[in-house]
Specification:
By secondary structure, the protein is an alpha/beta fold. The chain contains 14 helices and seven strands. The relative contact order is 0.14.
Length: 310
């Protein structure tokens, strides 16, 4: 197992928000390197239990270091949490769910994973390298329109068409195999640079989101929370970019409003409240200036919290 470090973001704030019960059942949807999980275990009593999920084999190896009968690690996607937890008989009985979205520092820092535009390595970007298609597979086969659409929609890249055209042109002679090739092309093609931001940032984010179906995974995981949590159970979600956060924010708002009937139908407020599934708790939580100084990667994080209703 590699030794790349991970600094857990919003550690205390996220675990505090779960309001840990000594004998509660909790789910860490993204184990990573276990920062949140270890903090939760530190607050659980002997009758409590923590389940954790991760699709990264390296995270699963890291979780094996935790020798605790109150802890169960599951290899898979958090979008499949209901199916993963069904054998344990805890669906509908979970007291709190934590989702720490996005990519972990060890994944970024290890060049062999292909997430980083700072260090050259294989152009992979899969959170689970044993399944699916790599970033290189996709870039070497997708047409310019598809590449442009992904860069624009998932990376909010204003030069998406320009980058896509260059990729399709260059891959004829030299197929893309490394992160250095891709980041070099982007630096060459983009006409001007944002101060303090690598020009490849948006494109790498976009391709990573596509390769790992990240937004679809988040949407399904949020829906799963309705089925997994017991009444008054807590859902805490940490997002790192606007696309993720928008999904989380809109999900919580819709869930709090309940089903909105067509205008003019004689439906009472009481009936609408019966369809509410979550109630938001407090305002979004952001990292402190002290945390950002210690861990600059935390600067874009936002924590949103909701309570299971009904």
């Amino acid at each position: 197992m590699n030794s790349y470090k991970h600094v857990t973001v919003l550690l205390k704030e996220a675990v505090d928000s779960l309001d840990i019960k000594s004998d509660g059942i909790y789910l860490d949807c993204t184990f990573g390197r276990g920062g949140h999980s270890r903090e939760i275990l530190g607050r659980l009593g002997p009758e409590g239990h923590l389940y954790a999920i991760d699709r990264d084999p390296e995270a699963i190896k890291s979780a094996a270091e935790i020798n605790d009968s109150r802890f169960t690690i599951l290899h898979g996607c958090f979008a499949d949490a209901v199916e993963l937890l069904e054998p344990f008989g805890v669906v509908g009985s979970v007291d709190g769910i934590l989702m720490d979205l996005g990519v972990s520092s060890p994944q970024i820092d290890d060049p062999s994973r292909g997430f980083s535009f700072m260090n050259d390595g294989p152009l992979d970007m899969r959170m689970d390298p044993t399944v699916g298609f790599s970033a290189a597979d996709w870039l070497n086969s997708a047409d310019a329109d598809a590449i442009s659409r992904v860069l624009h929609d998932f990376g909010e890249e204003r030069f998406a068409r320009k980058i896509a055209a260059a990729i399709v042109h260059d891959r004829i002679d030299t197929p893309f195999t490394t992160t250095g090739q891709l980041s070099g092309l982007i630096s060459r093609v983009i006409p001007f640079k944002e101060k303090g931001k690598n020009p490849a940032t948006r494109s790498f984010q976009a391709i990573r989101i596509l390769v790992n179906s990240e937004l679809e995974q988040v949407e399904q995981a949020l829906e799963n929370a309705k089925h997994l949590l017991k009444k008054d159970g807590i859902l805490a979600v940490i997002s790192f970019h606007s696309l993720e956060d928008r999904l989380v924010k809109n999900f919580m708002r819709r869930s709090e409003r309940g089903i909105q009937p067509p205008r003019g139908l004689p439906v009472s407020e009481e009936e609408i409240l019966k369809t509410r599934t979550f109630q938001t708790i407090g305002k979004p939580v952001y990292p402190s200036e002290e945390e950002i100084q210690v861990n600059p990667r935390s600067r874009s994080a936002v924590l949103r919290i909701a309570r299971r209703w009904g």
